[in-house]
């Protein structure tokens, strides 16, 4: 058998220059080709597998495993295969190859619940032989098997197991995010290497991920992801994490041009917003608008980028306007300290100008009401501006702009 196997694996001799002139040498009629050897092996295996001698089957399965023919073993249709694989995993519990064979066997025979349990066991195994990425792949496969199982049968136990697997997979993906974040900031300090080794050697619960890694290494994005996954809500904590994320992004781009910094910060906001914008708890729009406008004011950046970033996340323009209006009326002392008391009003002016240019940014059935609200607000803004002592040029310009906006909004209201 082994000689036949070696022949079947042999490659035909590569063409070479003849060492003497004349026709090529006649092939040896007694030499078997690799295709012939393969056919003979298959015929012999089929003949051998026809026996009902279990000990013979075990010896043959051992040979197949030793020769690396595990895929052929999985094709064997015999009642002896499952007991063989189960015994092999019991005798050698550290043999990952046999555990891999067992779940593949169960999957092939459509015993999906058993395959899912083996895959889950592999994912949770404490070992440096399995990487975190492999654990996630095992859990993903386990979820697929569990879903296939619930399609065939719909018992409550299987439904609970599927839910448990999905939760484990979600936490494992968080663990990968923590692992990659630690790797990104790692230095020669041994604590980083130790942390990466631990994260790679076993799956951890969400509390351990937060306390021992995300918090220890000040991974704000990971902490936000963890509290979101856990469904834990603490307004002050969420706001503090967002502030850390934004300030770190600004700190890391200090040496770049203003336009580049705006782009980088916008991309960060949008990428995280796509994850969390469906929940106001973890994507506090009003808080973020004020925080980003303060940063924008301090850095003297363009007045459009903040609200445009939120618009790109499909935050309704009408809602953004209400948020800006509320912040302007709140009269946060920051604006006086920063010597920019009209910053928010300038942004409101730009926001309304954007609406006039793109009316479709407010849905049609809300548009008329929104225009009326804006016209009333503009009247109050003008009264406040006109009451300013000495009326510097910046206020005159803003008053002129608001008058233009009034005219545009009036025409929109009349359908012109």
Layout of helices and strands, plus pairs?
Elements: H1 2-9, H2 34-49, H3 54-66, H4 70-74, H5 81-91, H6 96-108, H7 112-123, H8 132-152, H9 156-185, H10 190-201, H11 206-214, H12 220-230, H13 235-252, H14 258-276, H15 285-299, H16 305-312, H17 317-330, H18 333-337, H19 343-357, H20 364-386, H21 393-413
Helix pairs in contact: 1-2, 5-6, 6-7, 7-8, 8-9, 9-10, 9-11, 9-12, 11-12, 12-13, 13-15, 14-16, 15-17, 17-19, 19-21, 20-21
Please give a structural write-up.
The relative contact order is 0.04. The chain is 72% helix and 0% strand. With 416 residues, the chain is mostly helical. Helix 1 (2-9) runs antiparallel to helix 2 (34-49). It contains 21 helices and no strands.
End-to-end Cα distance: 90 Å
Shape: elongated
* SSE arrangement, N to C: HHHHHHHHHHHHHHHHHHHHH
Strand content: under 5%
By oligomeric state, this entry counts as single chain
Number of E strands: 0
Tally of helical runs? 21
Tell me about the largest β-sheet: none
């Amino acid at each position: 058998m082994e000689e036949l196997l070696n022949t079947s694996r042999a490659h035909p001799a590569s063409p070479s220059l003849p060492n003497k002139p004349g026709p090529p040498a006649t092939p040896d009629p007694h030499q078997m080709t690799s295709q012939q050897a393969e056919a003979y092996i298959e015929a012999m295996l089929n003949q051998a597998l026809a026996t009902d001698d279990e000990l013979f089957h075990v010896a043959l399965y051992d040979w197949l495993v030793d020769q690396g023919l595990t895929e052929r073993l999985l094709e064997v249709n015999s009642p002896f295969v499952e007991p063989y694989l189960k015994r092999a995993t019991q005798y050698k519990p550290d043999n990952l190859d046999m555990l891999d064979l067992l779940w593949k066997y169960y999957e092939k025979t459509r015993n999906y619940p058993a395959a899912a349990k083996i895959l889950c066991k592999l994912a949770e195994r404490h070992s440096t032989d399995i990487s975190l990425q492999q654990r996630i792949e095992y859990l993903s496969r386990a979820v697929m098997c569990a879903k296939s199982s619930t399609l065939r049968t719909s018992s409550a136990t299987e439904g609970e197991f599927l839910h448990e697997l999905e939760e484990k997979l979600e936490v494992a993906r968080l663990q990968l995010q923590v692992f990659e974040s630690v790797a990104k900031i790692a230095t020669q300090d041994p604590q980083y290497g130790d942390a990466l080794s631990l994260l790679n050697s076993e799956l951890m619960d969400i509390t351990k991920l937060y306390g021992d890694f995300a918090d220890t290494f000040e991974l704000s994005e990971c902490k936000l992801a963890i509290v979101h996954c856990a469904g834990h809500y603490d307004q002050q904590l969420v706001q503090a994490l967002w502030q850390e994320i934004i300030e770190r992004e600004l700190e890391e781009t200090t040496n770049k041009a203003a336009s580049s910094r705006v782009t980088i910060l916008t991309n960060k906001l949008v990428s995280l917003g796509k994850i969390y914008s469906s929940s106001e708890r973890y994507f506090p729009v009003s808080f973020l608008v004020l925080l980003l406008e303060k940063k924008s004011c301090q850095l003297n950046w363009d007045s459009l980028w903040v609200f445009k970033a939120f618009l790109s996340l499909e935050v309704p323009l009408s809602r953004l306007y209400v948020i800006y209006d509320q912040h302007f009326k709140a009269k946060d002392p920051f604006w006086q300290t920063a010597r920019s008391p009209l910053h928010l009003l300038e942004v409101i002016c730009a926001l309304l100008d954007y609406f006039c240019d793109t009316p479709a940014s407010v849905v049609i059935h809300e548009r008329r009401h929104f225009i009326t609200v804006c016209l009333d607000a503009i009247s109050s803004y003008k009264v406040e501006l006109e009451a300013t002592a000495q009326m510097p040029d910046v206020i005159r310009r803003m008053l002129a702009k608001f008058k233009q906006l009034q005219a545009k909004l009036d025409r929109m209201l009349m359908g012109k």
